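Module 6 notes. Inverse folding takes a fixed backbone as the condition and produces residue identities as the prediction. Think of it as a translation problem where the source language is geometry and the target language is the twenty amino acids. Below is one complete input and output pair. Work through it position by position during the lab.
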C-alpha cells in the first residue's frame, strides 16, 4: 500500500491549533443549560465541547467490513457532513474520531495492518481538511502485536494522533493479558491516551433469549477488561497510560463492591497484595465517558464511584446524538462540573488540543 502521500502528515498543524483555540474563546460563558433551552443556547455560545467517543467510517475499513459481511447501516451511512451537523447542533467543537467494533480484529496480520494504516491516514486527512473539528484515536491492528507496535510508532511520530483506540477484548483475550504487555509498555513509555470500546465477547453470545448482545454484554465486556487490567497488575505497572473506558465503565459501578471486597479476600489475590483500597485507587484514576449513560441513574453511580475529574464527554455518534447527551448532562451537573466533563478533563489527557 502506498503511504507516501502522508509521510509528513501532522493531524494538528500549527495554524489549525490557532483556529481551534480561537473557536474556544467563549468557554468562560459556559453554564448549566436547561433541557428546554439547549438548542437556543447552543446558537449563542461558541462550540466548546470535546467528544471523545465519535465514530467515523473510513472507506477502506467499510469495504473490509462489507467483504466480511460485518457492516451495518450506521457504518455504511456515515458522512463527514452528518458528523459536523450533529456536532454543530450541540456545541461540540472537536470530536476525537475512531472506528467502532470490530475494528480490524477479524483480519489477519498483514491485511489488518494495511487497513488500519489507511484508516488512520484517512482520519488524519479529515482533521486537516476541517481544522480544529476532528482529532484522531488511531485504529490499531490488534490483536497482532508486532503490527500494532509499528502502527503506534507511525500514528504518534508521523500522523501526530491524539491517542489510540482499543477494543475491550480480542478473541477472548482482555487488555491485561500478558500477550499485550509489549503494546501497553510502549503506550506507557509515550504517556499515551488509550480509548477503549466494547466488543462482542467470545464467551457470551445469544444468552438472553433474543435480547441483543449489545444490551448487556458490551457493557459487561468493558468491565471485564477493567478487571483484567487491575488484577493482572497491568494497570499498576503501566501507570502512565491514560485509559478512557466507554459508557461510564459499563457495569463496573454495579460490581465495584465485589471487586473491592470479595475478590481481594481470595488467597490468590490477597497474597499478591491486592486490597480494597488499592483496587479502588486504580478504578478512580481511569477516565470514563458519558456515551449512552447521560441519565440520572447511570451518572448517580458513576459520579459516586469517581470524581467528576475522571468523567469525559462522549456521544457514541452516529448511534446516539450529541444533543441528547448535552441535554441529559445539563439536568444532572452544575456549570463548574459541566465545564470539567464537557471540556477540561479531555484537555488534561489530550495534549495536542492544549497545543
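Target side of the pair, the amino acids:
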Amino acid at each position: 500500500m502506498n503511504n507516501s502521500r502522508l509521510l509528513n502528515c501532522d493531524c494538528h498543524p500549527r495554524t489549525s491549533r490557532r483556529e481551534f483555540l480561537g473557536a474556544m474563546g467563549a468557554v468562560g460563558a459556559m453554564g448549566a443549560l436547561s433541557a428546554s433551552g439547549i438548542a437556543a443556547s447552543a446558537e449563542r455560545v461558541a462550540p466548546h465541547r470535546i467528544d471523545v467517543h465519535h465514530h467515523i467510517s473510513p472507506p477502506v475499513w467499510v469495504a473490509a467490513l462489507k467483504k466480511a459481511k460485518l457492516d451495518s447501516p450506521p457504518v455504511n451511512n456515515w458522512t463527514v457532513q452528518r458528523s459536523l451537523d450533529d456536532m454543530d447542533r450541540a456545541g461540540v467543537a472537536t470530536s476525537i474520531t475512531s472506528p467502532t467494533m470490530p475494528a480490524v480484529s477479524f483480519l489477519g496480520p498483514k491485511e489488518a495492518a494495511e487497513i488500519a494504516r489507511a484508516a488512520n491516514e484517512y482520519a488524519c486527512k479529515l482533521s486537516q481538511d476541517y481544522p480544529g473539528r476532528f482529532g484522531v484515536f488511531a485504529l490499531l491492528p490488534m490483536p497482532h502485536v508486532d503490527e500494532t507496535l509499528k502502527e503506534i510508532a507511525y500514528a504518534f511520530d508521523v500522523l501526530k494522533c491524539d491517542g489510540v483506540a482499543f477494543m475491550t477484548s480480542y478473541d477472548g483475550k482482555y487488555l491485561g493479558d500478558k500477550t499485550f504487555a509489549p503494546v501497553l509498555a510502549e503506550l506507557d513509555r509515550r504517556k499515551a491516551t488509550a480509548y477503549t470500546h466494547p466488543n462482542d465477547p467470545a464467551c457470551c453470545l445469544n444468552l438472553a433469549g433474543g435480547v441483543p448482545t449489545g444490551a448487556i454484554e458490551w457493557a459487561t465486556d468493558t468491565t471485564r477488561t477493567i478487571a483484567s487490567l487491575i488484577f493482572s497488575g497491568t494497570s499498576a505497572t503501566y501507570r502512565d497510560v491514560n485509559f478512557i473506558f466507554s459508557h461510564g465503565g459499563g457495569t463496573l459501578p454495579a460490581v465495584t463492591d465485589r471487586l473491592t471486597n470479595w475478590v481481594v479476600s481470595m488467597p490468590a489475590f490477597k497474597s499478591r497484595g491486592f486490597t480494597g483500597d488499592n483496587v479502588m485507587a486504580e478504578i478512580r484514576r481511569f477516565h470514563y465517558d458519558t456515551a449512552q449513560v447521560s441519565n440520572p441513574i447511570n451518572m448517580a453511580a458513576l459520579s459516586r464511584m469517581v470524581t467528576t475529574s475522571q468523567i469525559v464527554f462522549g456521544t457514541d455518534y452516529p448511534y446516539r446524538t450529541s444533543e441528547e447527551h448535552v441535554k441529559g448532562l445539563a439536568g444532572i451537573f452544575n456549570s463548574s462540573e459541566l465545564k470539567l466533563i464537557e471540556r477540561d478533563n479531555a484537555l488534561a489527557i489530550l495534549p495536542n488540543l492544549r497545543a
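Reference fact for the lab report: Residues 109-129 form the longest helix (21 residues).
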